[in-house]
Amino acid sequence: MGERIAIVLGSKSDLERLKDGLELIERLGIPYILEIISAHRQPEKLRDFCRKLEKRGIKVVIACAGLACALPGFIASYVRIPVIGVPLEGGVLDGLDSLLSIVQVPKGIGLLSSGIGKRGFLNAIIFSLEIISLFDKDYYSKLSKLIKELNK
Questions:
Q1: Which one-letter DSSP state was computed for residue 85?
Q2: Tally of CA atoms within 13 A in the half-sphere of 125 that contains its CB
């Protein structure tokens, strides 16, 4: 079973914020790829990354960013697979600006948003597993383990 989930962070500093969720999916044996690419500072690199996602067999992208939060919309504009945007806390509005940036993408861009921050990241992981488990039963058992772990 290869990686079906791509997690993309807009900044290296986001790693610390999402550490608990990343540790949890590793402990449960959920394969994923992780990239740190800024939509604002590295648009060419992000575009190239997006163009290769579907060929790699990625079925869901979780894109996490704060402030202007261009990352999820940028990715969703390049791929035809589900993209879940996770707005992160920070800035004057403490993540609300990021949330609004995700949910206000132009029509024609398929993009979903989870809640803000760590809780939103965990919910994005759950939703990713729900999507993938529709066609890959191995992921259903991983989803069940994750939900049990979170409900302890």
A1: E
A2: 29
Parse the chain into domains and list their residue ranges: 5-150
The length of the chain in residues reads 152
Residue ranges in the chain modelled with pLDDT below 50: none
The rounded radius of gyration (Å) of the Cα atoms in the chain is: 14
Domain 5-150 has CATH 3.40.50.1970: yes
Asked whether the beta carbons of 9 and 41 are under 8 A apart, the reply is no
DSSP 81: S
Tell how far CA 126 is from the center of its chain.
Answer: 11
What integer pLDDT is reported at residue 1 of this predicted model? 55
Residue 141 to residues 46, 65, 151, Cα–Cα distance (Å): 32, 29, 15
